[in-house]
Amino acid sequence: MSSLIDLISAELKNLEDSQTYKYESPLQSAQDGVVRVNGKKAVMLASNNYVGLSNHPAVRKAAIDGIKKYGYGVASVRFICGTQDIHLKLEKKISKFLGTEDTILFSSCWAANEAFFASITNEKMGLETYKDVIYSDRLNHASIIDGQRLCKAETTDRKIYKHADVNDLIRQLEEDRNVPYRFRIIATDGVFSMEGDLAPLDKLVEIARTYNATLFVDDSHAVGVVGKTGRGTPEAKGVHGKIDVLTGTLGKAIGGAAGGYISGTKEVIAFMRQKARTYIFSNSLPPSIVFGASAAFDLLTKDKSIVKRLHQNTAYFRTKIVELGFTILEGDHPIVPIMLGEAALAQQMSRELLKEGVYIKGLWFPVVPKGEARLRAQVSAALTKKDIDRALAAFAKVGKKLNVLK
Asked: What CA–CA distance (Å, rounded) separates 227 from 236?
């Protein structure tokens, strides 16, 4: 019988022989619109730093102040002695920004998503027997999928509807109309990270009400990014304050460090504080992150030009990259998938672009379907027009060299 190490070694060999993700070209600078890689400057087009707050002076200062005033870490979970007044203030600030009643902080949005599904579906709530159902978009993030895997099979049915297809969702809900489910949960990303498209939340809100379902939205790639004031997909779709459960991250647009949250009704959040294992048994967020995230929300609230600049940069890049002859997935999100087809081509183009001073990564199977390999450009408000033009010139040169222009 092979040992664990033998099997792992064999699997690693298989991975090395395939097109795999490797930690190539680590950054030698802070995350910003322009970074240093291999001793040279490069335009950053691979970061979730959408509104340029990861290296913003106000966010950096706030993080330093957090350590000065509250220390390096909390050395405890929330319910013992890990709750500082700053945690409660940040939760209130997030709730106000999102238009919800209350919020609970987690170490990441991944932890938040796992907590929600497991806590809701695995608790009897006074019932001896019950059955729940989750309807999940086919392209939902891995954290939503893994959260649902924690739901007990004997008490939870998991169903998948076609991507952003409300008719397919309605069909499944109609088929189950007479099934005596305890809870019906519709789960979706707000913005889908590989495609950059927005979920039809306006329609999903109506569907959830019609079928007495709870609407769960992970808005990690939208908060601070989409909507006129950066309040996310609900704002962009005209349903701000009408989503039952919102989860999100502080590790992308909101400073880019770490942390996540669940935001919703007072009852749901109170229940999570009692039942969410990834909250109860994990250390609280350190003061530097709490202060930094709080400063990021303040900037977004007070300075409307930040989100406006992101939207302008995005529109400009999308228009110009198409004019060069590249094929992209249409939309208006700063995630701009540049479609190439083959994994090897995506890898080669990524390497060639880095030589020309553009940092961007390829995505291929199993992250995206086979034959749909792409470069995922991510536009930032930290970029100047000069930065974008420099990147576009590199795309034109490399695209012509590799014969991928239409």
From this structure: 4
Catalytic residue among 141, 221, 333, 361: 221
- Nearest alpha carbon to residue 196 among 380, 378, 382: 378
One of 54, 95, 136, 193 is an active-site residue; which one?
193
Q: Are 297 and 97 in contact (CB under 8 A)?
A: yes
Mean local confidence (pLDDT), 76-94: 97
**One-letter identity of residue 240:** H
Among 336, 337, 401, residue whose Cα is nearest residue 373: 337
pTM (whole model) above 0.90: yes
Query: Residue 334 belongs to what domain range?
Result: 23-54+304-401
Give residue for tokens 């027009």: 385
Residue 364 in tokens: 């291929």
Domain assignment present for residue 310? The answer is yes
86 shares a domain with 48: no
Structure tokens at 406: 């239409």
Active site residue 221: yes
Give yes or no: 193 in active site.
yes
Per annotation, catalytic residue among 252, 311, 333, 361: 252
User: Is residue 255 in a domain?
Assistant: yes
Residue predicted with more confidence, 20 or 260: 260
| Cα distance between residue 1 and residue 8, in whole Å | 13
Same domain for 260 and 127: yes
